[in-house]
UniProtKB/TrEMBL annotation:
InterPro entries: CYP11_CYP27_families, Cyt_P450, Cyt_P450_CS, Cyt_P450_E_grp-I, Cyt_P450_sf. One of its GO terms (molecular function) is monooxygenase activity. Heme binds at residue 506. This is Cytochrome P450 12a4, mitochondrial. Its cofactor is heme. It comes from Megalurothrips usitatus. The keyword Heme applies. Belongs to the cytochrome P450 family. Keywords: Heme, Iron, Metal-binding, Monooxygenase, Oxidoreductase.
Amino acid sequence: MLRLTQAVPAAIRGQASEGVLSRALQQTPLRLFYYHSFTSHITAAQVCLSAVRLRSTVTAVNEDVREDTASTDWEQARPYSAIPGPTPLPILGNAHHFMPPFGKYNGINLADVMKSFNVEYGPVAKLGGLPGRADFIIISEPHLIEQVLRTEGVWPMRKGADSLEYYFRNIRKNYRVSLASSQGQEWQEFRTAVNQVMMKPQNTKQYVEPIDRVSQEFVDRIRAMRDGNNELPDQFFDEISKWALESITYVALDTKLGLLRGDLDPNSESYKMIDAVHTVFESMYKLDFLPSLWKQVSTPTYRKFIKSMNFFTEMSTKYVNMAMERLQSTPRSELEDRPYSVLENLLLRTEDPNMAVAMALDMLLAGVDTTGTGVATFLYQLATHPEQQQKLQEELDRVIPDINKPLTKEQLEDMRYLRACIKETMRTMPIILGNARNAGKDLVLGGYQIPEGTLMMMTYRGLFDNEKYFPRAKEFLPERWLPGGEALKCKHPFAFLPFGFGVRKCVGKRFADLEMETVLAKTFRNFSVEWNRPPANTTFHFILKFLDPLKFTVKDRV
Ligand code: HEM
């Protein structure tokens, strides 16, 4: 249930129903009515309640008109069963397509599977008949993606990560289901609390200095790791992952793991965390996308997944408890002198350590391979586009006259070309394939009936290199994201949504931006980066993966 302080802002955003507001008012303890801050909330709540009632009446009239049109569309649309896709065999369903040695999609990268569905079956295609798995409807046109996202309702549903949800609901029953895997009102309560902590610019600001420190360690590590030809070692991606994990652990758990120290013991707890991040991601791809019997029998991948999740949960609980103890033992006067960290803010706001643990797990799972791969793709794109690299360095030389000083927020804000390069990298080498939603209501999509709750994968794979949406699509042109680049700009707002859309969009975007901008600015201010090898091969599981070692040649600039 929403508290009054959460229900009022939600009502102002049009996301709290009359029932939610009334319940929040009724549940507010009588004693709070006498506090000044609460009196204003209560007055606001009563005003909102009247507005919500009025809005419901107007909406009901409009809905009646819309319902009539919608039901005609629905009746005229082709049935769900007619959506094209591979025809399932009896018993085997469509699983054989993914099986070695002859399965059509065996070993194929997920991006190509999505694209081939688009080419073979059209912009609305069905992949059904996978054992133990609901159908996926694969959608690949921006106007259809827009339709899905604009009808997602106040509690957008994104199911599909069954393994994660299963873990929280069955293995860790005494913990909360994490933000990314919760739905409905449970999701909204969690998200409202987290938004107030993670989406506020002043809460990110305090991390500029520590994130700069971690990024400096990364730059020092690059300098120390190069061989005599200035080439980085085969395991360079591990170092990027360490940077990503070190940064996000500082935000999620108020902890420095010291991962970028050259002498780190490979058997240490910190080292094992990197392994666990990769294992969870890889297992989720196998458990939640590929055909798997984990819901019927305990498969080796399932066991690996559970082991890594247990390790994460234990680590997160340990650090959250330490933060609780620190908060309790620090004198109030001292606490008032400094801003609260993200973790402290979550603990103080929710008074629920389980919520802080669940959020920390989400941040570790969603915030390592994403930013890490984002940095790797950026290094690769700039290394293979020397003209753009030079332009970036001109900006960095102007904004950062002294490389020995920590970066400031003002300097970061001044790096417009850097941000344009990040966006262009995300377009030309997207790290995720798209997004997912369960239909918020019965929909007619591309002429087909899609019943409420159906899982839809919105894939961007065929959009980013499509001239229809991006002029000169095959070229790497950061200018398209800058004033003056109008002729090159994206032609449809739903063709490029790397952080998602609406109230359920990525909650870590501010931190992802801060981390990536800082480390990339420092790296390219210090070094010129070259790629002197054949084009690197990549594949897609849930996320882009480099198949070749990231052997960049890195030369000092200063
Ligand atoms: C380059 C980096 C990143 C990219 C491209 C990215 C992208 C996304 C996308 C596309 C979504 C789904 C949004 C939607 O459904 O509309 C998402 C959700 C999410 N992201 Fe990120 N993300 C990144 C980094 C991060 C970081 C650093 C964190 C943690 C601090 C994070 C935490 C989350 C969480 C918790 C959700 C689930 C939100 C919810 O369900 O309410 N992400 N992200």
